[in-house]
Amino acid sequence: MEKSQNWNDWRWQLRNRIRTPEGIKSYFKNLTEDELKGLETTVREFPIATTPYYLSLADREDPNCPIRKQIVPTYSEINPNKQVYCDPNALNEEEEIAHLTHRYPDRALITFTTMCPVYCRHCMRKRKVGKPERVISEEEFKPIYDYIKKNSQIREVLISGGDPLVLSNEKLFHYVEKLKSIDHIEVVRIGTRTPVILPQRFYDEDLLKFLEKYSPIWIVTHFNHPKEITKEVETAIRNIRKTGNPVLNQTVLLKGINDNPTILEELFRKLLKIGVKPYYLFHCDPIYGVVHFRTSIEEGLKIYARLRGRLSGLAQPIYALDLPEGKGKVPLCPQYLLKKVGNRYYFRNYLGEVIVYEL
Ligand SMILES: *Cc1c(COP(=O)(O)O)cnc(C)c1O
Ligand code: SF4
């Protein structure tokens, strides 16, 4: 991919997104049957897009490239052989207030836009994102703001995907300032994939000044593979951290991309090294469009158990899944407490040894 002189300008990256099957076809050398058919059919149901930057990380030749698998549509997405789906976001349909999901008493989730710089093939919200691309208006923001203002049990506002950092600085600063001005809002969290797929967003001096002024804003991002951690990413993360804001990461466990303890170990180590705390490892939910990326819960637990003991505790995320119908997230944990006999507890440690702990 040619790196133009505007390569480091995030607005240029957004304006020059690759959004058509032709654009994808002209980059990759040997597209598979599944990909070619996906470019004809799947794109009608689920949009495609990538930034030139993220596309440039993909291997032109290798269909197993983990970047390529996250951006090139396949026929497998819409041909899932009658599997059963649940949709953890289904409750959104019954939102009382558009673009606001208030599931847990103390935190509310807002979406400012349906647009993302990249449409991830594994996206759990793929029925919603990008169809069409739009940003909420001041009129739509008003009821969200009023609701949060009058519900004082809400301590945290989570601004999530579509990607809030596609908003212009002006709009983004305005909405975040309004939310931060509410007395009972103690925490603002921004869920954004831009550090991964558009790190140039954090070369923007005005954004960095804003982040510094309103620190702490918890930035939660979404790296899935060590290949995503580039020089550009290191710069972006360093810039965010200089503004005094914590950066956390959510990974989705994806078949054929990162369902392997060696890959995850490398990913979490690299994240820790650049100052990003692995927060969640999400099990891939049975949602229409992503079922071909799923592992079983047993496989997931096996991979997760391998990380314990091999990796610093700081690099350990919580493995979790999202229950259907908005019933919340539950952590998945290998069984370490095997049994209790009298006052003796039998534990399995990270080496697989059974150790007795006596009260
Ligand atoms: C995931 C989620 C949250 C945040 O959950 P945490 O466990 O605090 O990260 C909040 N609201 C909704 C609707 C969610 O899906
Ligand atoms: S950035 Fe997030 S919300 Fe947007 S397509 Fe990717 S996974 Fe979905």
Descriptive report:
A nine-stranded mixed beta sheet has the order 1-2-3-4-5-6-7-8-9. The protein has a three-stranded antiparallel beta sheet with strand order 10-11-12, with no helix packed on it. The mean pLDDT is 95. The protein folds into two domains: 327 residues, Aldolase class I (TIM Barrel, Alpha-Beta Barrel), CATH 3.20.20.70; 25 residues, no CATH class. The chain has 359 residues and is of the alpha/beta class. It has 13 helices and twelve strands. It is globular. Bound molecules: pyridoxal-5'-phosphate and iron/sulfur cluster.
Bound molecules: pyridoxal-5'-phosphate, iron/sulfur cluster
CATH superfamily of the largest domain: Aldolase class I
CATH class of the largest domain: Alpha Beta
Measured on Cα atoms, how large is the radius of gyration?
21 Å
What fraction of the residues are assigned to beta strands by DSSP? 15-25%
Q: How many β strands by DSSP?
A: 12
Tally the structural domains.
Answer: 2
Count of individual helical segments: 13
Helix content: 25-40%
Q: CATH topology of the largest domain, what is it called?
A: TIM Barrel
| Strands side by side in the biggest sheet | 1-2-3-4-5-6-7-8-9
Distance between the termini: 63 Å
Q: Roughly what is the average pLDDT, rounded to an integer?
A: 95
Proper CATH architecture of the largest domain: Alpha-Beta Barrel
Q: What is the SS-derived class?
A: alpha/beta
Order of helices and strands: HHHHHHEEHEHEHHEHEHEHEEEEE
Largest sheet: 9 strands, mixed
Tertiary shape: globular
Residue stretches low in confidence (pLDDT < 50, at least 5 long) are none
